[in-house]
Amino acid sequence: MFKLAKETFLNYLLLTDDADTEHGIEKWRVSALRIMIIVGYSLYSLVAIHSSISAQQVGFYVVLPLTLAFYVMAGLQLWLSKRHYHISAYSLLFSIVAAAIAINTIVKIPILAMLGPVFVFSLPLAAFILLGTKAGMICMVLNIIPFIGLLSGFQLNQFIDNHVLLDYANAYIVSIIFVFFNICSPLAVARASVAAKRLNAKISVQNRNLQREKELYRTLFIDTEVAQLVVSNTSVVTEMNQAAEKLLFCQFTSLRAPVSLSTILPDLALNDKNECVINRTTNGRMKTFKVSRSVLLQDSYYFLTIQDVTASVMLHKTLTAQALLSRQQSVKDNGGLANRTWLENKLKQQLDNPQTNICIAAFKINNAQFIEQKFGVQYLALLVKKLAEHWKAKTHISASIGSVEKDNLTIITELSMVDAHSFMRSFVELLPKNILVSEHKLPLDFKVGMAFSDINERNPEKLINNALYAVTSSTAQISLYETTSLERFIEHQEINILLNEAIINNELSVVYQPKVKGDGRLVGMEALLRWHSPILGFVSPSVFIPIAEKSGLVALITQWLITDVCRQIATWQKAGLNVVPIAINISGPDLDQEYFHEHLVNTLVEHRIQPQLLELELTESARSLDNSKALATARYLSNWGFCITLDDFGIGYSGLSKLVSYPVKRVKIDRQFIKQIHVDERKAKVVEAIMAMCKVFNIDILAEGVEEFEEVDKLLYLGCTTFQGYVFAKPLAVEQASHLLTVGNVFAFKQSQTVSKP
């Protein structure tokens, strides 16, 4: 109850400055007014009570209504301070004047009566605090009147007869003046001073924010290479960055009069998406611009972003023309055979009957390049035509025959899957090894791929593509189209494309798995990549990393990982955390890159990170195309202070050679030697041998993939003291890793996580 009353009282005094004003008045002024009224009248109450009792004893009853009037006025002043501040403030000033007049009037002793005008001298200070400069200056001028009265000795008590001399009149008057000058006024000044300090702090924060906004404005608008305009709702261009001036050949900064948007972009017509493409002649050349609009924080202005898409448009037109030309060329007859367009139309007619089983057989000449080089290009077309003649002569089956590529023969027949394979095998066995074409015996080397129509697949173009895919994706002479193999191929291609976009769009993320001693003490962490695609969802590293290695994206991924980890280490250092070495997986192709070491070192220099804080883990399976170059890069990085570690040690054959030739400082024993080591003595012997060998080279040992404490105990017995695995901690997000760096021990970290859970 007391706590609630105290909080209510403090809130009433408005001691905080969370809001600038209270009903349109500065909050600190209202607070100073209430402090002066409450403190002053509370302390005056002692004088009022004692003087009233003394006055009643001597029959000087005028003191009682006078005292009561002042306290009634005090209550009105507090009540009016909420919504009628100015009335309350002027009333307080009037109370000071009234108190001074009362002292000068009813006090009999001349020296004490003179303290009344002295009391009025506090009026300007109160006016400055409560009402501002103007009121304070007026009070200073008005104080000339009591000043002259004091000099002339004029007193109001000379007009009052029958004065009564109270025994403690001196104490009463001095106490009133003491309380006001020594307590009320200083508290009001202190309140104003606190408000001024808070205001200065707020202004300092606002200035820093303005500075950051200015820097952000310069980064996003002035210094950016993207052309941007700031336009008012009246279509007047108010600002234009240097990129826009350069793109539009417009010296905006030198223009004195406002320029209209229609003058710069006369053909601008934004669509529903606030975008449009316009053509404009600049510097004598036709340009194509893509213009997009985005709203600023202020509703009266908006951004216009202009991109030069001339090259993109021209490329699109060129590709379209090339595709059209390619299509026109593909419909030409190949050696007198029907083209793909004819085949697709014919197949479409046959697919109109849902009961028909259709087989599409694609023949591919394997030695087409040899025939073209030895006999001439025209002989390849003649060979394909001869193969079609053999089909007609030996099968006597109705078929649609054509050629979709120069080394291809495509045959469409009405055969089921069961009959087609055996029939095709028989036809292949009847074909000769060489075919006579214009007195030349051409060797016949070919493969056949077959695809079949079904209820779900009735697309002519796709059926032909299926047959072509079957013949190119297999080494068998006769192969059937399988949906799963194509889907797997397409899936890999999609992942490859999306992974490239993920690197550009910063969709990758990093988690950190701790490396610890047996007592849980943190000694390092390994940075592990994660990819959560907005299209595919979570993609396992075991899926996208091999695809990245095959497609050549692994170098870009490694560069991204290095930059992200270095940025995170710098963030931890600025936060004052005790950062441990962070390990990054490096592949053989990374070491083959000519500028890999320069990128790594430059990134460390940029973020002011010591090389000892970055550990490079070379995987056992990482094979370099140029071993001498990879070795030179590894030695260069080791000389810089990087820790070189062999990961997955023991699963391949190159580990021992790397252990000898590379500047290795640590070896991570693979999980397959750690699992169940406490019950498998053969694994224990292998690990013991590895440790003995590493001891000779003065190389540290780390056991990875530890999942049971029994394995930890066995490894400690063997002499291994550093571990990484789920038994200690799973990979952690950045926030959890930051907390772990603060704690420094995985067991203490787990305990804190358990306590923090509800």
Using only C-alpha atoms, the radius of gyration works out to 46 Å
Strand order, main sheet: write it out. Answer: 16-17-19-20-21-22-23-24
Count of DSSP strands: 24
> What percentage of residues falls in helices of 4 or more residues?
55-70%
Largest sheet: 8 strands, mixed, barrel
Looking at the structure, what is the overall shape? elongated
* Cα-to-Cα separation, first versus last residue: 30 Å
Compute the number of helices.
Answer: 30
Which spans of ≥5 residues are poorly predicted at pLDDT below 50?
Answer: none
What structural class is derived from the secondary structure elements? alpha/beta
Structure description:
By secondary structure, this protein is α/β, with parallel strands linked by helices. Helices cover about 55% and strands about 20% of the residues. The chain has 30 helices and 24 strands. An eight-stranded mixed β-barrel has the order 16-17-19-20-21-22-23-24, surrounded by six helices. Helix 7 packs antiparallel against helix 8 and helix 21 (about 555-575) runs parallel beside helix 23 (about 595-605). The longest helix is centred in the first third of the chain and has 54 residues, at about 170-220. The relative contact order is 0.04. The model has no long low-confidence stretch (mean pLDDT about 80).
Summarize the structure.
By secondary structure, the protein is α/β, with parallel strands linked by helices. The chain is 55% helix and 18% strand.
